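Cont'd.
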Amino acid sequence: NAGVTQTPKFQVLKTGQSMTLQCAQDMNHNSMYWYRQDPGMGLRLIYYSASEGTTDKGEVPNGYNVSRLNKREFSLRLESAAPSQTSVYFCATRLVGASYEQYFGPGTRLTVT
Amino acid sequence: QQQVKQSPQSLIVQKGGISIINCAYENTAFDYFPWYQQFPGKGPALLIAIRPDVSEKKEGRFTISFNKSAKQFSLHIMDSQPGDSATYFCAASLSGSARQLTFGSGTQLTVLP
């Protein structure tokens, strides 16, 4: 089992370019989350999907969109990247009803120049 | 708005010593308080967690102390080892189907050999 996988691992964008970060899980978890991690600020929730077919905004959703493609996949899209979106992005999943633990992927390091 | 405040930002401890990291929260509706451990280049992983109906939880060398009246909780690492060197995040969660986590800003722990 791969657990939570994220692609790409690294990406450099120019201001104004768009891209999609991919997240996939093989744990049959219901809920999926996107966080960004910045120095001194911990992890901040961008968007989440409590279950397949639903998505909701988190703490810092501006500049991002998400798609819960199916139960396994949850993508994060930057339509017009800005330098302020330079960060490390983590996807996480949780099995509803089993525990409150979230399982994190390895992250995508994004630089916007 | 930072609802979970974490200190210190960095901590250096000698091997065999006790590491203590503190967190304070504002929202009394939080009902689940986990600590996550993150090694460089990896995603965070759950270390230990507590519910507010208990004042202490111990797992091996790791202990959470919880003070509901003060709205504070802390992580104690006994007999700290160089392998414990990592970034530690406290977090808090509200009830609900998504169980979103609000993270503290993180503490970088270095255990000297």
